[in-house]
């Protein structure tokens, strides 16, 4: 299945981001946090167990929900209304959140040794790392679209 082309119109791009990325992150993160908790419990003390990963993912659920709500309720509606003056501060706040999300991605990759499975990893562990790979890729593309494509259209010097 090929993904639809990314819209160039800013209003349409905000809708695309909500439908493609916000909805997907809300679907991915709770399942990944639960799976990480299971892997940590079942394999506690084993070589390469990503101890602390469930905590990172649980924290990220809350952080991202607040971030996405700020976009959905404040920033994106303003952009859809033509990007009225005064968007620099909300955009700067979103960029700061994106920086923090990047640090969380780094923590995920550090805890999972770059999503490298140990020899003989079980199906749950494999599913966790496959899902994390998808999540990290989605989040990086989500951040790129906002930081490099959407936000520059509404920032003033």
From TrEMBL:
Keywords: Cytoplasm, Iron, Metal-binding. GO terms for cellular component: cytoplasm. InterPro entries: Hemerythrin-like (IPR012312), RIC_family (IPR019903). The keyword Iron applies. This is Nitric oxide-dependent regulator DnrN or NorA. It comes from Rubellimicrobium mesophilum DSM 19309. It comes from the Bacteria. GO terms for molecular function: metal ion binding. Transmembrane segments: none annotated. It is found in: Cytoplasm. Residues 20-153 form the Hemerythrin-like domain. The lineage of its organism: Bacteria, Pseudomonadati, Pseudomonadota, Alphaproteobacteria, Rhodobacterales.
């Amino acid at each position: 299945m090929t993904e639809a082309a990314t819209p160039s119109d800013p209003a349409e791009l905000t809708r695309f981001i909500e439908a493609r990325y916000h909805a997907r992150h809300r679907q991915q993160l709770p399942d990944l946090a639960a799976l990480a908790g299971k892997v940590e419990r079942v394999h506690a003390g084993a070589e390469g167990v990503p101890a602390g990963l469930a905590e990172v993912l649980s924290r990220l659920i809350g952080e991202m929900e607040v971030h996405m709500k700020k976009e959905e309720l404040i920033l994106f509606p303003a952009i859809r209304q033509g990007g009225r003056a005064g968007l620099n501060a909300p955009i700067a706040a979103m960029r700061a959140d994106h920086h923090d999300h990047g640090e969380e991605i780094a923590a995920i990759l550090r805890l999972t040794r770059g999503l490298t499975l140990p020899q003989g990893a079980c199906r749950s562990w494999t599913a966790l790392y496959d899902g994390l790979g998808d999540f990290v890729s989605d989040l990086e593309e989500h951040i790129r679209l906002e930081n490099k494509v959407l936000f520059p259209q509404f920032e003033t010097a």
